[in-house]
Fold these 3 entries.
Entry 1:
Amino acid sequence: MILALDVMGGDKAPDINVEGAILAVKQTDNNVILVGKEDVIAAQLEKWSRKYKFPKERISVVNATEVIEMDEHPANAARHKKDSSMAVCCKLVAEGKADAFVSMGNSGAAMAVSLLYLKRIPGVSRPVISVPFPNINGRCIIVDTGANVDCKPEHLLQFGIMGNIYAKSVMGIRNPRVAVLSIGEEDTKGNELTLQASELLKKADLNFIGNIEGGDVPKAKADVIVCDGFVGNVFLKTSEGIAEMVTKFIKNSIKSNPLYWGAAPFLKLAMKKVKKKIDYDDVGGAPLLGVNGPCIIGHGKSNSRAVKNALIAAAKFAKSDINKKIEEEINKFNG
């Protein structure tokens, strides 16, 4: 696989992106195209080559003169910065010179640029950002987590179809349980959007189990969680905040009492195991489903391990031929 990486995207760019690319080529047989300002990339490669031995022939560089910043308006940046590192990555995929692209940059811009250069998969109304989320059995996937804040029931139906295909093809879940995120498990609970979306999902060729509440997501009651981007983003950000709060509570409790210090080494080992289960860096990024080319969008605060894993996820995405399956399933239902 040939993977294009937006070197200039993210809060810690370009350092962690180049290091992550090096880690990816060391661990896999994929090739990586580093896209960004050539002089910046050259300096980074020289810096990291002192620390790592890696197959340099599997890393190439493509120049991009512009950068889309994290705080820029997505649509404006996509339209006006046509030589941004993000745009050049998309063009490489559109032209068949790369199989997938990865960016840790502005997620809204990544979606806007993808729509501009890769276009929608035929039949898809709205692409969706889908985040793998930890639960007691492993991970589920939440669709949508911020791409579409105002939705119609038909959109949520397509989100469920696309999430179901990703869960099967990439996450290896044989018969994913699909559910709508709502305010109660009963069919009568929810707003007009969730009630109508549930009716549509019942009629689709899915293992639809109905509504679930926010607290049911980490309990592994469903594999594909369907919601609009507003609800999904609030759920995701709240969960991240709670995880940080609990971690700080535990650390502060240990520090507050000398009697706990003796148990600290054992607690540290246990916390490491817990952290590994919920660590976003292990996932790497969120797939953008519904555009005509594999794309993984990472967190702006990602480290090099997250970048490496995002590249690995992008290769898996590209190999699975998900987009063809999405087009077939969406058009089957539309037809």
Entry 2:
Amino acid sequence: MTRVSLIASASLTALLTWSLPAAAQTVLKFSHTDQQSGARQAAAQVFAKKVEELTQGRYKVNVFCCSQLGNDPKNIEQLALGGIDFTVSATGSYASQLPSLNLTMMPFMVDSYAQGWKLYDESKWIQDQFAKAPEKGFRFLATWEAGFRSMTTKEPLMSPDDAKGKKLRTFPNEMMRWTLEAMGFNIQIMPLPEVYLAIQQGAVAGQENPVDTIYSNKFYEVAPNVTLTNHVYSPIPLAISEKTWQKLSPVDQKAVSEAARVAATFSRELISGNDAKLLKEMEAKGAKVNAKPNVAAFRTAVQPVYGKAREKFGADVDALLKDAEMVRASVK
């Protein structure tokens, strides 16, 4: 072959190589409402990395934190429609699509992380409700952790007597509203990104959320009394749009499910091991942590909530409470 022919051949090879498309990679959207510094964002990043690894790069997950694509109700609505591919939110947030999940927000069902994990992993009632999700446009992949919900208020909060007449922000969930109203609060529903300013300006006297959410959103700065009521165990199931799920091959469905479980273990270990550290950091920044409120008084105040739930949800209430009772008896 002549020198000219060699040059021409090399040029043609280079041109063909340059013009061939790179291996196709599908990009998926993961939207959530936590801050960049929060545990939810950390778990989402673990999930994204694992998905890309287990699918050999066929799928890439782009994580949008901080309500960039919408608040929790909007994310779940978009998930069902196929507008986003993944979200992670409190179990009770999904009640807008599956009303029975309101019951997961009943107060004081479990007393420890170990009990909460066993309840969500083994409760037949919860698994039966989760199994209904594909009909609503999404499916649950794994239960991540957020923690037990507690209060941050401008003024000290020791018992329901201190709650009377105070306006407290919470998220849109019927059971949570009933619980907080039974404690004596007036309820204000608003998106998470608006809460800090609302407290600062006096529109509400405080809010309730798990410790990690309180810390990452700096609510202790404007509502410095952090009261560990632990009134509701509030994990955050990760869900995938059913439209997205059906587009995945069986191999990639398995990979995404495995990535979800890996991230769930990471999430549970991070949250359960971090509460004490975050509370100390908040105290160092001026927060007043009340680790021993009159929980018995709060438990007494919310007793009517169970009866109210039975009136609306019937036998489902006692089915879930029975599962919770069995968990409390088996895990101390």
Entry 3:
Amino acid sequence: MFPPSFSIYVHVPFCHTKCHYCAFDSIPSRPTHAFTSWRKAILADLNYQAKTLNHHPPRPVTSIFFGGGTPSLLPPAIIGEILQHIQQLWPQSNQTEITLEANPESTTPAKLHDWRSLGINRLSLGIQALDDHRLSLLGRPHTTLQARQVFAESRKAGFETINLDLIHSSPGHTPHQWQEELSLAMELNPEHISCYALTVEPGTPLERQLNAANLQLPTDETAATLYQLTQSVLEQHGWNRYEISNYARQDHVCRHNLAIWLSGDYLGVGPAAHGKMTHQDGAIIRTHNHWPLEGYIHTQKHHDAPFQWVELSSPEEAAADCLIMGLRLVAGIPRQLYREIAGADLMEKKSAAVDFLVKEGLLLMDPTSIRLSPRGLDFLDTCLTWLI
């Protein structure tokens, strides 16, 4: 059996400003009393989920992830109170990975030292670009110099695992520019780099600018070159690609995200957060918390459930999710894990699709794993349409 890991995701919806490309459930920062109301609701949410979704005895927490939004806007004392509350509800070990997403404009040396003292051992810096023109285009409220300074300050504060979030394929982005940005990122020498292609989401300022013909995205050919350049440059310099957009040195993979990609369980805490829990009888429950923020806080004030809905996943849905998430990984998924979730081997369920994808050199299967070839990863969505 593959016992599912157990993680906790805490959604912080506050941001300094809304970036031009952002479609996440976030809001421009509110007065301090909004932080206080959010904090009370988070603690109530944790209590509710511990009471209604917990295993007996409670499983140890393998990772905690503060995401957003911009968690670095929060006073460190609030983060500390949440971590302490989690520790009271669930067992942990010294190996628990605790990640905090931080942006340069809201990160200070004092905060960095406070975060380390609270036990946060992984920092994810929302750099997004290392070019001031692109930062302005994306609506990021910091400069390249600020990003580099914050990275240096993070090292001084004792952070030994730092991720850089970067975005390529923004309007006007060229391979030459991206090569220079990747070089600057590598000079910083982080343990982990996440490189995502820009996605234009409906209703964002970026979409409106594109529709007005003020901006143009790179051609498909240029976007493909940027994607391939990312892989070749980073791998040549020692960052191993372990997921379609994520690269790590040695043992510095993001354990929180890896657990989710491998069908692990996680509580989604905070407004709009999603969660997945496997009951001891094998049933899978999915949760989606209330949004907007006011609706989420209302549940705490009236002692209501923080969930907007709860549903049981069928074996077919769980099997599809296993492939959708797990085939993003370069190593793919354990074949036995898929059997346990789906109730049958992939060859039994999708023999014709498997035969076709293997013949085309897109899918690789052996007695222990199911994974896509490097070429298959380039056509992930197409492969998934065959398999689910």
